[in-house]
Write a structure and sequence with these properties.
CATH superfamily of the largest domain: NAD(P)-binding Rossmann-like Domain
Shape: globular
Helix content: 25-40%
Largest sheet: 7 strands, parallel
Oligomer: single chain
CATH architecture of the largest domain: 3-Layer(aba) Sandwich
Structural class: alpha/beta
Bound molecules: nicotinamide-adenine-dinucleotide
Length: 312
Amino acid sequence: MNIIVAGGAGFLGSHLSEKLVEEGNDVTVVDDLSSGLEGNLSNIRRRIHFIKSDIVDFDSDDKFDVIFNLASNASRIEWEKRPVEVALSNSSGNNNLIKLALKNRALYVYASSSEVYGNPDVIPTSESYLGRVSTTGSRSPYDEGKRFGEALVKSYEREYGLRNIIIRLFNTYGPRMRGGDFYGRVIDRFIQQAITGRPITVYGDGMQTRSFTYVKDTVDAIDLVVKSGSVNQVYNIGNDREMRILDIAELIKKMSNSTSEIEFMKLPEDDPRRRSADISRIRKLGFSHRFPIELGIQYTLDYAIENSNGTV
Ligand SMILES: NC(=O)c1ccc[n+]([C@@H]2O[C@H](COP(=O)([O-])OP(=O)(O)OC[C@H]3O[C@@H](n4cnc5c(N)ncnc54)[C@H](O)[C@@H]3O)[C@@H](O)[C@H]2O)c1
């Protein structure tokens, strides 16, 4: 098949593109490299088409069967520093790619997020939960952006017959997740801090929970819902194993034999207290995790040590 992966130079997009290439598809990656790296595609660079473009402006006369839209900055610091770009990726850029999908009669796969649930009071959270989200808080460009993104996809489905699948991704981690204070997300940040001996910075008291999925499990689940799921359906992709952030910090400290202290910092605004995915819908399709957290962290740690230049 002819496939676009928008955001394909990013963490998740590059792993997804690799899988799609391995399966024999013709893959075009569209990415503005705002947080992604062309180097993430080095394993498949000669076997894909790469177009550096913002999805807000992208167009093509080529014929495509599937368009994956993963193009959105995804770390909290990014969406606090570039709130307009993040909001526009999920609204204007999303609109632009939806029109391209309609022109091609392509399946449109929109990468949404567990952030659409906000600070949920039902745990584990299923796809039918409507969300408890602030429209005006500093997380809103991202979480309301994703909510509007979903609403736009469903509107095009109702009015123009857009064939779509919405995937609500929960915290995913693994090799190529970008580090540093700007791009870094929790597991990657802890790993970088642990291997460089800096304090491991836990927000709040660390009793807040998240559920984590190793990137290869996430990519397998995306592949499964596209091949075996229902068109016009929404799927949680994540894990129902809930873990406290402090426990993750301690696990990473132990697994890396780090001398770093654990330091507690102010909890960011609207930080969700608990997060865990009800994944019965993808389980019914036959999904199960292959990578327990200890194994996934070991692989991520090995990758970080191999690629560390001590400046992260
Ligand atoms: N990784 C997770 O835990 C997670 C969780 C929930 C949702 N998601 C969603 O999955 C998608 C991929 O996330 P990721 O973790 O790989 O993040 P990432 O930052 O590594 O990847 C995003 C990619 O999109 C590109 N991009 C951003 N805005 C763009 C634009 N306007 N035009 C073109 N390219 C653009 C970036 O350069 C980057 O390569 C995002 O939509 C994110 O919201 C990820």
